[in-house]
Amino acid sequence: MLFRRRKPAGLLEKLRGLFWPRKGFRRPFRYLGMRVLRLAASPHAVAAGLAAGVVSSWTPFIGFHVILAIVIAYLTAGNLLAAALGTALANPLTVPFIWAITWEIGTLMLGGTPGGGKHIDLHDLFERLDIWQLWGPVLKPMVIGALPPAAISGLLIYGVTYYLVRGFQKRRHARLAARARLRLNDALSGMASV
Questions:
Q1: Distance between CA 63 and CA 80 in Å, rounded?
Q2: pTM for the complete prediction?
Q3: In 26-139, which ranges are continuous DSSP H helix?
Q4: Which residue in 23, 92, 152, 189 has the fewest CB atoms around it within 10 Å?
């Protein structure tokens, strides 16, 4: 194997890697950020795509976040890859919080009392796979409650990403132009000495 470790990791090291990665927690976020900045698209397309991914992450439809993000990105002329990357907001660590927030907001918007009301036996509803009974007390408040945080975070992500990508692309174009001028000057000075 080409990239195999010389000394295989022991059980203790594997367990430690589950809870604390060897390279730290910042590295995946930096990689994701650089991946978004380096996309070959206009600043609007990257920002709209990333915002579409974040907006779709607020919905309770776990298996359909990427599909929903791609549809939203297509409708807003966003980058489809950025939309798929934006769905990383909904991950196993954040989904319980997202669901709790959207359910509470949705319950408030529908006129209910958050945290109160009648008891819902989710285990029984999931066991019988009765989606229509699950719609009223659970999914409907979550879908409606996802609208405000999705709109706020989508607009915020769009604005921040647009300006970051625009600045990054300007600096990159300036660096490439300076490098091209330097290469041209070297080539011209080489021809003059012949």
A1: 17
A2: 0.74
A3: 26-37, 43-57, 65-75, 80-86, 95-109, 122-128, 131-134
A4: 92
* In the chain, where the domains are located: 33-162
Angle between helices 43-57 and 140-192 (to 10 degrees): 150
- The answer to whether 101 and 145 are in contact (CB under 8 A) is yes
Cβ contact 47:162 at 8 Å: yes
Cα 144 from Cα 110, distance rounded (Å): 8
Q: In 3-state terms, what secondary structure has residue 91?
A: coil
How far from the centroid of its chain's Cα atoms is residue 6's Cα? 35
Q: Give the closest residue to 71 by CA, choosing from 55, 58, 91.
A: 55
Give the model confidence (pLDDT) of 128-181 as tens digits.
Answer: 666 677 777 778 888 999 999 999 999 999 999 999 999 999 998 999 999 999
* CA-CA-CA-CA dihedral for 14, 16, 20, 24, to nearest 10: -60
User: What contacts 24+ positions apart, CB below 8 Å, involve 131-138?
Assistant: 138/103
Structure tokens at 64: 């359909």
> Would the CA dihedral through 100, 106, 110, 113 be positive or negative?
positive
What residue has token string 């009392």? 113
Please state, in angstroms and rounded to a whole number, the distance separating the CA atoms of residues 41 and 166. Answer: 10
Nearest to 60 by CA among 28, 27, 95, 92: 95
